[in-house]
Amino acid sequence: MKKLLSVLFIIVILAGCSGNQSFEPVEIDPEVDVCEVCNMSLSHDAYATQLFSKAGDVFLFDDIGCMFEYVDKDKEIDKDQIEVEYVRDLDNGDWIQIEKAYFVYNPDVWTPMANGVVSFGSKESADAFVEKEGGEVLNYEQLLEHKWGWEG
């Protein structure tokens, strides 16, 4: 009986360890969480972003520009080590995978690090924002070509 319980215990432990890794957005706690780049509190979480490594580590940023800086300038993580990146829909706060989002660049729009880039879940929402506030709508591929402040 003791042997059977030991075997069952090992099976339960192994089953728990072999589960699929979850890469779902994590909840942000502005009292604790800070940006990986600038160390600012994530108190304006409507602009926050998240990056998951393939190993399951999560990195939080207060502004989409900080996430790009972490990867492109600081090179703290290689692009091939990234599993998924999330941005927030400025309209409703939902998390969106970065490749599925639309962005507006307007240098006069406030963001935590003054990058002037905000994200939306649909092109229609991004277009509506531009109609009211001005700026330029970018899809993900265009965002990859965007020139950030540290680039010149």
TrEMBL record:
<dbReference type="InterPro" id="IPR012640">
    <property type="entry name" value="Membr_lipoprot_lipid_attach_CS"/>
</dbReference>
<dbReference type="Pfam" id="PF05573">
    <property type="entry name" value="NosL"/>
</dbReference>
<feature type="signal peptide">
    <location>
        <begin position="1"/>
        <end position="22"/>
    </location>
</feature>
<dbReference type="InterPro" id="IPR008719">
    <property type="entry name" value="N2O_reductase_NosL"/>
</dbReference>
<dbReference type="Pfam" id="PF08139">
    <property type="entry name" value="LPAM_1"/>
</dbReference>
<protein>
    <submittedName>
        <fullName>Nitrous oxide reductase accessory protein NosL</fullName>
    </submittedName>
</protein>
<keyword id="KW-0732">Signal</keyword>
